[in-house]
Amino acid sequence: MAGWLCGLDWLGGWPAPFYVVGAAGLVWGVLWFGLTHRSPEEHPRISKEELHYILGGGKRARKDQKRRNTLKSSCHFSKNH
Predict the structure, then answer these.
(1) Which of 5, 27, 28, 24 is CA-nearest to residue 16?
(2) Which of 63, 41, 61, 36 is nearest to 51 (CA)?
(3) Which of 17, 22, 50, 63 has the most CB atoms around it within 10 Å of its CB?
């Protein structure tokens, strides 16, 4: 797609893929921040059954729980993984 965009005179040729990807990222960001919520409780279009399923079905990570550094994990460097 980038080659095709570069071949067009639209948006100056070779800069066109950068403009298109940048515009798509801006649209994605606006949609992401407009449609997502911090928690299921704050979501306006969630049903009570769905909220109960989400909150009762899985373990939530605690804020005081440390994240493991996966790059230092030995399983990434083993042949059996």
Answers:
(1) 5
(2) 41
(3) 17
Continuous H helices in the chain: 2-7, 16-35, 48-57
Buried b (16+ CB within 10 A) or exposed e, 18-30: eeeeeeeeeeeee
CA 1, CA 75: separation in Å to the nearest integer?
38
Mean predicted confidence (pLDDT) in 45-73:
72
Average pLDDT score, the chain: 79
Report whether pLDDT(72) > 90.
no
| 3-state class (DSSP) for residue 46 | coil
